[in-house]
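User: I'll paste a sequence; please echo it back and then give the predicted structure.

Assistant: Echoing your sequence first, then the prediction.
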Amino acid sequence: QVQVVESGGGLVQPGGSLRLSCAASGNIFSIYTMGWYRQAPGKQRELVANITSGGMLNYQDSMKGRFTISRDGAWNPVYLQMNSLKPEDTAVYYCYAAYYTSSYSQDVVWGQGTQVTVSS
């Protein structure tokens, strides 16, 4: 089993920066992808960015150049550096981890979410 916990959300002014962290625990060596989704009020959850065990990075196009995903060592932690934040980035940000189970199937675990509010 794997668990993830996010931290680092808050209130920031437009143009500002925030760094989110996601700490994984449990059988972290079974993880093959970690990343972030976000969900704004009244909207569907959307991918922000993810990183694979091989180091491949994937971003939603609208966030390329402003957001950077990275990790320290074996998934602990995974960071999302967000720069040049805009009011439309306001959302609850969810960390997730995709991993292989003991029965060789795949599963996904989600964090509880952290609120990011961009407002003057």
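The two ends are 41 Å apart (CA to CA). The longest strand covers residues 91-100.
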